[in-house]
Amino acid sequence: MRASETGLPEHEARRLLQLVTGLDAAGVALLDGLERDQEVRFEQLVERRLSGEPLQYLEGTVQFGPVELKVDRRVLIPRPETEILWERAVEALREADEQTVIVDLGTGSGALALALKHSFPAARVYATDIDPDALTLARENTESAGVTVLAGDLFDALPSGIRGDIDLLVSNPPYVADEADLPAEVREHEPPTALLAGPQGDEVLVRIAEQAYHWVKPGGWVFLEIAETQARRALALFAEFECAIHRDLTGRPRVLAGHR
Q1: Residues 189, 211 within the same domain
Q2: pLDDT beyond 90 at 29
């Protein structure tokens, strides 16, 4: 089966060819044919992709800012919108030493925690999640980087000793309303617990807002990814902070930045 015969966009078919052959893009462009076992695997992957399974899950990895992560159905696929959160947080914090405390609530794959540890290697970085499967993958992604991954519900997972001492709090929480009309590729393949947050999609946002001011130190920052419809709500919830809203690549309000 040639890339042009799969029914997939050609760039996707070529990425799957890279996956089954181990070749880079240039090597795939010069590829004359596949061995039988490669052909079978390629056809299986094409069928899974045509059924709606995300390409990132098929490849098993995704690039997020400066780091590469393992991803599968246990976790939400990191998006470019979340990279904007990471970029803005790095700009705000600027520098860190061994006394700097960074927390990623609801870490999922560990993307934000790992990228922030890469940017600030001296900092103490904590990542929390309530889902056991996500925690397993987050630990695989961050174990060699020195990120502390903790099991528990939001702030409940954190050591009490860092209460009021967090320099940077980040989160990409669930923010989709329960009855939202999601694309089939998302609805049928990505974990609903990482997406859905009550009838209005703001249940987790509210819970973070209730405690954030008491955990972030004076002069510290909070950065949260939000739904494009939640900017006004988020600003009201985090009124104790000096807040701004940052837009994503499509111009939609996407990231709340709060300074204590």
Answers
A1: yes
A2: no
Q: Give whole-number Cα distances, 217 to 157, 164, 198, 214, in Å.
A: 18, 5, 29, 8
Residue 194, pLDDT score = 92
The whole-angstrom separation of Cα 98 and Cα 199 is 41
The structure tokens 């600003």 sit at 235
Based on the domain organization, do 28 and 93 belong to the same domain? no
Closest CA to 173 of 112, 118, 92: 112
The answer on 26 and 79 residing in a single domain is no
Confidence label for 143 from pLDDT (cuts 50, 70 and 90): confident
Q: Can you give the residue range of the structural domain that contains 103?
A: 61-259
In angstroms, the CA 96 to CA 122 distance is: 7
Mean of pLDDT values over 100-129? 98
Euclidean distance between CA atoms 177 and 165, whole angstroms: 32
Dihedral sign computed on CA atoms, order 180, 186, 187, 192: negative
User: Tens digits of per-residue pLDDT, 196-210?
Assistant: 899 999 999 999 999
Q: What is the tally of structural domains in the chain?
A: 2
Phi and psi based region of residue 74 (left: phi greater than 0; alpha: psi -120 to 50; beta: remaining)? alpha
